[in-house]
């Protein structure tokens, strides 16, 4: 009580010492005065708490920082729950998180709202702590040159935007979240991620979320990794070939369950966003689960399985494939099936096995897809497998996300913007793809060496040297062929 009496005396003295304020205080003057007094009261309260704790050690309990102290010392505020670059990955609040939110809400209320800087862009918090909002962005620019092919039409140099996205994400309360992004990389507007969701905790260590909207696949390790987070310039052939006909996105619903060592998801979608409401959508059911039987600060073992089944309607049943094998920005360099129509559905499945120890990671993937054809024709079968690995020579840990079982943005220990070298990674990959049981089969493989330089946690340079080998029986470039592709990328993700 002595401390509070002193605080009251100090308040009166402050008013008396500033007659202008006492006579006609403005709203800003009163706000400043309240903040100063709140800080003084908080300081006195902490001192009283410490004295009481020393006198009654047996009954002592850990003291939470007073909310008004958090307002007085914003530099020491705990990190907010909303720090992930993707709203869909946010954890539902447990007891500790709710304490943090209460402290933050008091601090934000005292300041009338807050803004902080996360991955290069601001995160806005409302004064009552109920709302958060964050703009999103992704700029990825590539250049590619191919040489050594027997066909001059494949020996070309091109440039392109792998991604040019703008979007937003936010939360309402602790459970509701949303995200929206559009891509302009092909010089036209393409809606990619667009969903709303609800998340909650079932019990300690077990929580869930449900997302509804235009959803990115949860399928295979690299197929579930965003284009801004892949360790190579292009995903593996497992991710690009063992895939529903509607590709990486579909409009529907995806519930997900998370536990301490893994997650599982189930997705039900129709087609991608389009303007066609004159016929039924194709239907796709997709499931994936991953498990980390070993999980520590510096070691992880990853095991994953996934599968999908897709029903194709007449008029939406073309199965023609032209799959990347030596880089996205050489349209002449593909494995091709030729024109293939009359599909009734597809079924695919795959496995994942890998992990990391310290700065070294390895990941193997394999999958198979059966595309069903009408008129009694045999299934069109696609088989793919890959083995990838990397080593961070700067000692940084691989950017593995144990919550989703995929790669995310790295946590660079020594950013170049703070005088460090950034993070430097050496990568290697072998991948193999085959189209079988059709009139015009094809097969090929590619071996890649790469170097990634992460300037900080959201800016990177990448270089890939690829030796590729193709054998097409359809398309412009048929027969066996091989050559090299050298590609480079600069990317930033906000």
Automatic annotation (TrEMBL):
Keywords of this protein's UniProt record, alphabetized?
Answer: Coiled coil, Signal
Signal sequence extent:
1-22
Coiled coil ranges (UniProt) are 34-61
- Pfam families from the UniProt entry: Porin_O_P (PF07396)
Protein name (record): Phosphate selective porin
- Annotated source species: Novosphingobium barchaimii LL02
């Amino acid at each position: 009580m002595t401390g509070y009496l002193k605080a009251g005396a100090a308040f009166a003295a402050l008013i008396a010492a500033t007659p202008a304020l006492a006579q006609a205080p403005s709203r800003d003057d009163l706000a400043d005065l309240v903040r100063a007094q709140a800080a003084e009261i908080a300081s006195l309260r902490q001192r009283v708490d410490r004295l009481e704790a020393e006198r009654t050690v047996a009954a002592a309990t850990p003291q939470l920082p007073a909310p008004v102290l958090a307002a007085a010392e914003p530099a020491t505020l705990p990190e907010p729950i909303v720090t992930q670059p993707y709203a869909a990955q946010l954890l539902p609040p447990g007891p500790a998180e709710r304490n943090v939110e209460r402290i933050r809400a008091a601090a934000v209320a005292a300041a009338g709202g807050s803004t902080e800087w996360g991955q290069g862009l601001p995160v806005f918090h409302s004064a009552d702590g109920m709302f958060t909002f964050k703009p999103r962005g992704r700029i990825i620019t590539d250049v590619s040159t191919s040489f050594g092919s027997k066909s001059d039409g494949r020996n070309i140099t091109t440039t392109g935007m792998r991604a040019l996205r703008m979007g937003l994400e936010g939360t309402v309360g602790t459970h509701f979240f949303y995200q929206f992004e559009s891509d302009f990389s092909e010089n036209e507007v393409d809606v990619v991620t667009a969903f709303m969701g609800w998340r909650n905790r079932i019990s300690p260590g077990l929580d869930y979320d449900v997302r509804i909207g235009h959803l990115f696949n949860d399928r295979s390790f690299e197929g579930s990794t965003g284009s801004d987070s892949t360790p190579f310039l292009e995903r593996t052939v497992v991710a690009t070939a063992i895939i529903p006909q509607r590709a990486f996105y579909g409009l529907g619903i995806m519930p997900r369950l998370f536990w301490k060592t893994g997650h599982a998801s189930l997705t039900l979608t129709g087609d991608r966003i389009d303007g066609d409401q004159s016929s039924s959508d194709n239907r796709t059911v997709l499931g994936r689960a991953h498990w980390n039987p070993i999980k520590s600060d510096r070691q992880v073992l990853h095991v994953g399985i996934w599968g999908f089944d897709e029903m194709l309607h007449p008029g939406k049943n073309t199965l023609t494939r032209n799959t990347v094998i030596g880089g996205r920005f050489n349209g002449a360099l593909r494995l091709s099936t030729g024109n293939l129509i009359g599909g009734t559905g597809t079924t695919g499945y795959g496995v994942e096995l890998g992990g990391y120890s310290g700065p070294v990671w390895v990941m193997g993937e394999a999958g198979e897809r059966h595309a069903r054809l009408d008129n009694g024709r045999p299934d069109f079968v696609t088989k793919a497998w890959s083995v990838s690995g990397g080593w961070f020579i700067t000692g940084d840990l691989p950017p593995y996300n144990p919550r989703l079982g995929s790669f995310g943005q790295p946590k660079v220990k020594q950013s170049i913007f703070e005088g460090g070298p950034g993070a430097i990674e050496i990568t290697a990959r072998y991948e193999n793809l085959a189209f079988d049981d059709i009139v015009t089969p094809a097969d090929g493989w590619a071996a890649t060496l790469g170097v990634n330089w992460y300037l900080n946690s959201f800016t990177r340079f990448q270089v890939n040297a690829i030796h590729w080998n193709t054998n097409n029986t359809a398309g412009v470039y048929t027969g066996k062929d091989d050559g090299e592709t050298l590609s480079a990328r600069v990317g930033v993700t906000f």
